Structure to design on (96 residues):
């Protein structure tokens, strides 16, 4: 991995963390505010709940992708010393 590619990925990861923070703020907002008159239509409640659900799911998806990319960066920095565990011992040791 080239140095600039690594730097770009690290910047994307940092931006992902910021996006997750913003999604958490959306999820933490109250649906029914204390100062409102309490007369909120069922459609508005449903839309607000769906927005919160989407924000939470998106945050988890972003975090999952961040973790995967960070692991890829860490693996590339360590080199090719990682054993491919998808193969058995005999398959790894056989000559191709």
């Amino acid at each position: 991995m080239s140095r600039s590619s690594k730097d770009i990925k690290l910047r994307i990861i940092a931006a992902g963390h910021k996006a997750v923070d913003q999604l958490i703020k959306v999820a933490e907002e109250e649906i029914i505010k204390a100062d409102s008159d309490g007369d909120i239509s069922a459609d508005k409640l449903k839309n607000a709940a769906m927005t919160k659900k989407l924000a939470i799911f998106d945050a988890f998806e972003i975090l999952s992708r961040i973790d995967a990319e960070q692991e890829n960066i860490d693996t590339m920095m360590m080199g090719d010393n990682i054993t491919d565990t998808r193969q058995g011992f005999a398959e790894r040791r056989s000559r191709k």
